[in-house]
Amino acid sequence: MLKTESSLVLALDLGTGGCILLPDQQGLHSHLLITAGKLGTIYLVDRDNLGHFKANSDSQIVQSITKAFSGWVHSSPSFWQGASGSWVYLGAVRDSLKAFSLSNGVLSKSPTSHSQNTFSYPGPTPVVSSNGELNGIVWALSKGSKGEAILNAYDATNLAQLLYSSDQAPLDRDRAEQLVKFSVPVVANGNVYFGTQDHLDVYGLRH
Fold it and tell me: How would you label 7-34 residue by residue, b for 16+ Cβ within 10 Å and e otherwise?
């Protein structure tokens, strides 16, 4: 049990978002798990030895990054190993999508890049597509001014570089239907799929 949020009221609980298991890492702790909670703290835990409860600190776990986000985290992280490095991606409410580098089993203490836009409730759960270790794209859904879903695509090595957004095309050509909270993009067969309130929206290359 982690001290930072477990000792607070349930409104600031740790279990609002999901976790991911990382591929085996170099360093003292090879089997790692990453999660975050409503206080915006990221936790990196040895899944073979969670560390037990410690009242005054989180020194029993591999790493914690406090105040990584200004808003609550309701989403799950994603991971990608590229040719030039490895990153963990995570977003929060009223904050940007952020990338943290992962090296020798430890996260960078601050983001290596972040999106220029921020996300409303409940925040994004990012998904990564790539050609192996090349051409990484991070996909995330945001909410438009009229409640519509907006599909965003970012360069996985630099989230400040927006590659595509479904609200960019003229005459609302790529406009999606109403966003469903906690909806997550699915990438398959060269297309991106996600559910809305009334439809299954599919995005892909125009021929």
Answer: eeeeeeebebbeeeebeebeeebeebbb
Tokens representing 114 are 């972040």
Supply 178's token pair.
């109403």
Place of tokens 């999901």: 18
Euclidean distance between CA atoms 22 and 119, whole angstroms: 25
Helix, strand, or coil (residue 152): strand
Tokens for 60, please give them: 């029993």
Q: Distance from CA of residue 204 to its chain's centroid?
A: 22
Q: Fill in the amino acid letter for 123.
A: G
Burial of 173 (0-12, 13-18, 19+ CB in 10 A): exposed
Write out pLDDT tens, residues 167-201.
Answer: 998 888 999 999 999 999 999 999 999 999 999 99
User: In the chain, what is the straight-line distance between the N-terminal and C-terminal CA atoms, in Å?
Assistant: 52
Q: What's this model's pTM, rounded to 2 decimal places? A: 0.91
- Count Cα neighbours of 150 within 13 Å in the Cβ-side half-sphere: 20
What are the boundaries of each domain within the chain?
3-203
**Assigned CATH for 3-203:** 2.40.128.630
SS3 160: strand
**pLDDT tens digits, residue range 75-112?**
999 999 999 999 999 999 999 999 999 999 999 999 99
* Residue 47, token pair as written in the block: 């899944």
